[in-house]
Design goal:
Layout: E1 8-15, H1 18-31, E2 36-40, E3 43-49, H2 55-65, E4 71-78, H3 83-89, E5 94-96, E6 100-103, E7 115-118, H4 131-141, E8 149-153, H5 159-166, E9 171-176, H6 179-191, E10 197-200, E11 211-217, H7 220-225, H8 227-233, E12 234-246, H9 250-258, E13 262-270, E14 273-280
Parallel strand pairs: 6-7, 8-9, 8-11, 9-10, 11-12
Antiparallel strand pairs: 1-3, 1-4, 2-3, 5-6, 12-14, 13-14
Helix pairs in contact: 4-5
């Protein structure tokens, strides 16, 4: 969550094909402590507390990606401001298949939906606005969650774990390596009156028990590096959902999943972002 009473550095990234690379840079910057992001036509603005800004980190990041995305940056310093007020003004209601409504506490909504999730607009990923969260939520609406045990790995705001519990799951464990995301998930679960266990951790935090349903809306590389752990956490006959990657990466994900007896069942795509639904057979 961006705090009001401190100065911020605003990193303005200008990139070729921002529609492809914008979310990659957002994920990378979030991993090194950037707290808020605003999408721009030619890139993204990223906010970090002035005391935490590290020029060498930025230069190293751009160097890593220069072969695929020629990216430049400008830097400005911004005085304290009510960032939550700015964020709230850019937080629209999300409707999915006339079944699910995702909105902030300050929205006045009168439409009748089967499921309604209230999300505090904090700076954690997963409010339903991004294509991958939208796709994961949409896929989850078509999956039987009744009495299922659920693992939401890379939970962000916790919206997927919350939806699974609303749809009848018996338990939900949400894990994220970002402390802000874990805190956000706890707040949102409480606000929606569902019981979700939240852990600030990584793949090493996945318990030894198995789950009927595993949700992983992360990114291509993180999915691939954690495929063994995620497949191992899934019970035989269980279902796993992967998203956070582009259609072009689908074959790599499916090939890696096949090694762990994960068989594709379904897929959806939106603006080149993809969700894969797979089931675990006998190993």
């Amino acid at each position: 969550m961006i705090h009001e009473q401190q100065n911020y550095k605003v990193l303005q990234l200008h990139m070729q094909q921002p529609e492809i690379y914008r979310d990659i840079f957002i994920a990378e910057l979030a991993a090194i402590g950037y707290e808020g992001f605003e999408e721009k036509q030619n890139g993204v603005e990223a906010y970090v507390a002035a005391k935490d800004f590290d020029l060498a980190q930025v230069e190293a990041l751009l160097e890593r990606y220069k072969a695929i995305s020629e990216t430049s940056f400008t830097l400005i310093e911004r005085a304290p401001e009510n960032w939550n007020e700015v964020w709230e003004s850019n937080f629209p209601v999300v409707e999915i298949d006339k079944q699910l409504l995702i909105h902030a506490p300050f929205h006045e909504v009168s439409k009748d939906f089967q499921y309604r999730i209230v999300m505090e607009p904090r700076m954690a990923f997963g409010t339903g606005h991004h294509e991958t969260t939208f796709l994961m939520s949409k896929a989850l609406l078509d999956i039987d969650c009744q009495d299922k045990t659920v693992l939401d790995f890379g939970c962000g705001t916790g919206v997927l774990a919350i939806l699974a519990m609303m749809r009848g799951a018996s338990t939900a464990l949400a894990i994220d390596n970002d402390d802000l995301a874990a805190k956000s998930s706890r707040i949102n679960a409480s606000m929606n009156k569902v019981d979700v266990e939240v852990i600030h951790g990584d793949e090493n935090s996945i318990p030894t028990r198995s789950f009927d349903l595993v949700l992983a809306n992360i990114n291509r590389n993180y999915i691939l590096s954690n495929m063994e752990a995620l497949a191992g956490a899934l019970s035989s006959g269980g279902t796993i959902l992967f998203s956070g990657f582009y259609q072009a990466d689908k074959q790599d994900i499916a090939a890696a999943a096949k090694k762990y007896a994960l068989v594709p069942l379904d897929e959806m795509e939106k603006n080149e972002w993809t969700v894969l639904v797979l089931r675990k057979g006998n190993t």
